[in-house]
Specification:
The chain has two domains: 2-44 and 144-194 and 279-333, FAD/NAD(P)-binding domain (3-Layer(bba) Sandwich), CATH 3.50.50; 88-136 and 198-274, D-Amino Acid Oxidase, subunit A, domain 2 (D-Amino Acid Oxidase, Chain A, domain 2), CATH 3.30.9.10. It is built from eight helices and 19 strands. The protein has helices spanning 10-22, 38-41, 60-78, 95-104, 121-124, 144-157, 247-258, 304-321, and strands at residues 2-6, 26-31, 45-46, 49-50, 55-56, 83-85, 88-91, 114-117, 133-136, 140-142, 161-163, 175-178, 198-207, 215-217, 221-224, 229-233, 265-275, 284-287, 294-298. The strands form four sheets. An eight-stranded mixed β-sheet has the order 8-9-7-14-15-16-13-17, with helices on both faces. A six-stranded mixed β-sheet has the order 11-2-1-12-19-18. Helix 1 (10-22) crosses helix 6 (144-157), helix 1 (10-22) crosses helix 8 (304-321) and helix 3 (60-78) packs across helix 8 (304-321). The longest helix is centred in the N-terminal third of the chain and has 19 residues, at 60-78.
Length: 337
Amino acid sequence: MKINIVGQGLAGSILGYMLKEYYHCQVHVFNNEKLSTSSAVAAGIYNPITGKRMAKTWFADTIFPFMFQFYSSIESKFNIKILHQTPVFKPFADVAEQNFWMGKSVEDNYKNDIEIVQNLEVVAQNIDKNFGGMIIKNSGRLDINLFLEIIKSYFIHQNCYFITEKLPHFDDNEIVIYCEGAYAATNPLWSWLPWQCNKGEIIDIALDASPMNFIINSAVFMMPISNDRYRVGATYHQDDLTAQPSQKGIEELKNKLESFLIKPYQIKSVQSGIRPAVQGRRPFLGQHPTQKNTYIFNGFGSKAVSMAPYFANHFAQYLLHNQPLLPDVQLNRTVQW
């Protein structure tokens, strides 16, 4: 059985690699390299406690161990470093937030992931927060561009990578899995799903300050990428889905950054991408309702780094061994047919 993967962003790369390397399937990967993808510009942050309400990520205790195992295996196989474990420091805005998280820190669901700290000297030298904060463990970043480059080279070496702007005709006995990111929202095969795609912009800055080996999570994140360079983001805009960064987005990032950063900085670059976000913030996995050889593996939004490895294996078990998909990721959870 031939399995065709459409798209070589993070989701398509992980699924294609897993089907080829773990399950020894005949895989072909089709990629339009002229299209911009959110994977190529994503910060790559993984973090078990996220969102405006700083809640524990759905399914975190299951997906995070699998994520660490998967990326570590990639590092060992290809002799590279792609996973950079870096704690997140979340400064408290006031005493009420401090008290709230001190209580949360002893709960079973949080005690292994967070540590309350009164002050971090190197952080205090750079940001304007006086109420302490918490360190979120099991966090860091994936070097997505290096990962995508290595997996692309793997596919090329396996003679299964094809650059194309137009897909070939697939026979009825071939499986086709769409991993197109936000482009699925305009693909007639999948546009009926409840997409909530949004634009994310990030800026890279140079900062003349003592190096901080933490990802700061305040009004925006500030992530170290080298000794004096940091990546700052991100915006979430649904009203502008153009490919280019907007001045509105840049100003928003600057204003939010300057709400806590007390050191001068220089903007070195600006990037943007469209996230394939969905209603309910659960990915879409499964079979098209009428075209039975056609599937989708998509909708991971900003959490593809942590979610995609586990759910690629989950999807492979469903596709190859008829194992049921979790109800939360099935296509008919929001649309009935």
